[in-house]
Write a structure and sequence with these properties.
By secondary structure, this protein is α+β, with helices and mostly antiparallel strands. Helix content is about 25%, strand content about 25%. It is globular, with a radius of gyration of 13 Å.
Amino acid sequence: AGGKMRGFRVYPGANRQAFARMGLRAGDLVTAVNGTPLDDKDRAEEIFGTLSSSTEARVSITRNGRPQELVLNIAQLSSEASSLGVGGDGNIPPDPAAEAPAE
């Protein structure tokens, strides 16, 4: 909005079931993590980098134009990502190509 980043659009990767179990749906716009807005790419990378030391994360999303809150189990995410061979430390790096276009 107004040429400013609003968040990251998310889509399932190789493990669609894990994505759905987290409560996410293809095309959700993740706008904040633990109350911190994802309106800056550098800040978003910092936030995603700190999640590996957390047990859960409160994620604000916009789905079909409506705001929602999800609580994600980070330990489960890390375990499932490791089993898929995503990143040596189980972290899934944010994909800049998935950034939401300004609306």
